[in-house]
Amino acid sequence: MENNLYPIKFETIYKPKIWGGESWEVSGVEGDVSVVANGFLAGNSLSELLEVYMGDLVGDAVYERFGNEFPLLIKFIDARDRLSVQVHPGDALAAERHNAFGKTEMWYVLDCEEGAELINGFKREMSRDEYLEALNSGKIMDILNNVKVHRGDVFYIPSGRVHAIGGGNHIAEIQQTSDITYRIYDYDRRDSEGNARELHTELAVDAIDYKLYNNYRTDYVADVNGTVNVIDCKYFTTNIFEFDMPVEKDYPEIDSFIVYMCVAGGCRIEYDGEQSAVEIRSGETVLIPAVIKNLCFYPDGKTKLLEVYIKS
Fold it and tell me: What is the pTM of this model?
């Protein structure tokens, strides 16, 4: 492989589900590792790129922390029906039980039907016993916090928080690289074979955060031709970058790859001079290697990107 890295687009990994479907945009999950779609690296997997380019691809600090494991899973979710109520373990519990990372994630609502909702946390402070009583008596939905959603809403879902995406939502999801989900409740649905879907009641009980929080939606003020931070945690930083005129960005302080998810409009991204460029449209994702420190964005009308990286 040559040494000159460039903005990388990957083949979509599409996963049909009982409730709709997901497209995995950037994935290092074993068995579902992303494959490069553009440029001379096309056909190589993300794992192969990591082995060769290491810190040049993901940043020295990120490589030191995660080695050849890509730390984030980037998805688009099309929820035509509601997803199961679930919870994800934190790092310590996931390491102990599954030899894996935990799963903290965030959602950005791309679009939603009128009246669409999601579940995020509890309506009131809970105890383990109160939770189990509600679950076993068929009253689990009575204690869950339903939130009406709107286009552009942001939700942070730390590990341990009970949650579910409701039907009629189209969502961008950014999460730790982990596919560990404890399913709590699934509305008594049956799979294509007529079987009830597996629940993980015992596993979930020790993973759940039973506390009540003040606000389950992440508030922010949009800034056209500016970059607004919405999530800043140890697992990832996510900004909303909205613009309708050319913008140049320098990244001397970011020792990390950057993922751009296009959630509205489209643009041309130039790097290494105007002869080198990649285009991204709504619903597409591109990974900017850490070694690239300057980009110029040329929008095709009003464009909105989610900008995702890991702080050292």
Answer: 0.95
